[in-house]
Amino acid sequence: IDTNQVLTNYLNAEITPECFVIDSNLNILYMGLIDDWVKELGRKSQFIQNDYLINALNLYLNNKSIQIKETQAIGCIIQK
Fold first, then answer.
1. Residue 18: how many CB atoms within 10 A of its CB?
2. Residue 7, burial from CB neighbour count under 10 angstroms (0-12, 13-18, 19+)
3. Which of helix, strand or coil describes residue 64?
4. What's residue 71's pLDDT?
5. Which of 1, 32, 67, 72 could serve as a FRET partner for 54 with CA atoms 20 to 30 Å apart?
6. Pairwise CA distance, residues 31 & 56, whole Å
7. Neighbours of 46 (CB within 10 A)
């Protein structure tokens, strides 16, 4: 829980849920959707076709380049 919004402000997070993959130098390697289950607010898919977060983590941990670096998060706006 980011009660004081320290990480929220540092990462410029705007939506919940919005995920980030960050390296040891605090570079953002991926930001956005966890997966593509939600298509838009109130509309979900029956199946997940893209696991964006898992793919980004696996590529990073295997020292490979992350192809999809950003997706548009879908959810509720974070009040700042």
1. 20
2. exposed
3. coil
4. 97
5. 1
6. 9
7. 5
Q: How many CB atoms lie within 10 A of CB 33?
A: 23
**Full-prediction pTM beyond 0.70?**
yes
Please state, in angstroms and as integers, the Cα–Cα distance from residue 7 to each residue in 2, 12, 13, 20, following that order.
7, 8, 8, 11
Instruction: Give 43 or 23, the one with higher predicted confidence.
Output: 23
**In the structure encoding, which two tokens stand for residue 78, read together?**
């974070």
**What pLDDT, in 10s, does the model give residues 24-76?**
999 999 999 999 998 877 788 889 999 999 999 999 999 999 999 999 999 99
Among 39, 30, 33, 36, residue whose Cα is nearest residue 16: 33
Looking at residue 1, its pLDDT comes to 82
Q: Strand pairing partners for 70?
A: 31
